[in-house]
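Is this the right way to post structure tokens for a design question? Let me know if I should format differently. Anyway, here goes:
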């Protein structure tokens, strides 16, 4: 089972999850080749290591279920930490430990998969950015899963993702925009959270639940550029990149990436994509260099 979503980032909100269920096997089998789970229905009880859970209902697909843990909040956190394993895929043959997927400047343990673009940023990089006059601000978000093993279900990705935007971050974004600076998102989930919180054109601080899908038809109101992993055409991550640049540009980039053997997915390589046809006006050049 892969936990796949919850409604909020609240510490106590760990009883109800959506989850992807598989048949026998482990990460050494490609996700697309994992067998279907046994027949499941509402009321079925699951033994998950030290934890117990009940299936509340199927969510429109045999692999996608809503579950409720029966344990206390502390027991759930402890059980996930001791018995749970990071989600990983068959191209990584060695079992991953928790610290393998913890990005260098990560905060609370709320992501379902590593927010992989974050591997490019560490404390040394932040220091170098600061020296160059580049601002940095954080948000917290529950990065969702990349693959369900079923093409029909994958078309529903990304699932809803909770996020939290501090007041200081919302103010930094508004200040940067007012000075003609650019907003650079580190990863696709950051784009999704900021655009959801900034639907009115102004990023609102606080907790939220990103429910929309960003693609070529979307109008970006907040984010001007993205540092992102290299994603395969057809995935929800790739569709988001289409909101930044046209298909011809992305097609050329994909050809170059494949020809040079760049790595995709978790622990892969990254690209920097700027939104096309954006004009910036700035009277004070040092203040323009704001991330």
């Amino acid at each position: 089972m892969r936990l796949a979503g919850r409604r909020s980032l609240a510490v106590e909100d760990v009883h109800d999850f959506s989850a992807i269920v598989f048949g026998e096997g482990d990460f050494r089998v490609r996700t697309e080749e994992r067998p279907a789970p046994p027949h499941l229905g509402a009321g079925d009880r699951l033994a998950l290591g030290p934890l117990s859970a009940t299936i509340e209902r199927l969510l429109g697909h045999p692999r996608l279920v809503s579950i409720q843990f029966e344990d206390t909040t502390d027991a759930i956190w402890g059980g996930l930490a001791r018995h749970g394993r990071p989600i990983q895929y068959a191209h990584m043959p060695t079992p991953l430990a928790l610290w393998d997927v913890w990005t260098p400047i990560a905060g609370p343990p709320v992501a379902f998969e590593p927010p992989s673009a974050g591997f490019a940023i560490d404390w040394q990089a932040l220091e170098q950015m600061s020296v160059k006059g580049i601002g940095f601000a954080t948000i917290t978000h529950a990065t969702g899963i990349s693959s369900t093993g079923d093409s029909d279900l994958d078309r529903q990705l990304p699932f809803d993702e909770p996020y939290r935007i501090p007041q200081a971050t919302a103010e930094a974004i508004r200040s940067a925009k007012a000075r003609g600076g650019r907003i650079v998102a580190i990863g696709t989930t950051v784009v999704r959270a900021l655009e959801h919180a900034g639907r009115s054109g102004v990023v609102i601080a606080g907790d939220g639940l990103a429910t929309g899908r960003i693609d070529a038809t979307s109008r970006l109101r907040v984010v001007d550029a993205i540092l992102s992993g290299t994603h395969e055409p057809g995935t929800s991550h790739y569709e988001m990149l289409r909101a930044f640049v046209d298909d011809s540009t992305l097609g050329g980039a994909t050809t170059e990436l494949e020809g040079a053997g760049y790595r995709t997915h978790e622990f892969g390589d990254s690209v920097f994509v700027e939104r096309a046809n954006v004009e910036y006006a700035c009277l004070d050049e040092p203040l323009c260099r704001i991330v």
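Format looks fine. Someone answered above. Worth noting: The longest strand covers residues 51-61. The helical segments are 73-83, 123-131, 151-154, 167-178, 188-197, 236-241, 247-259, 285-288.
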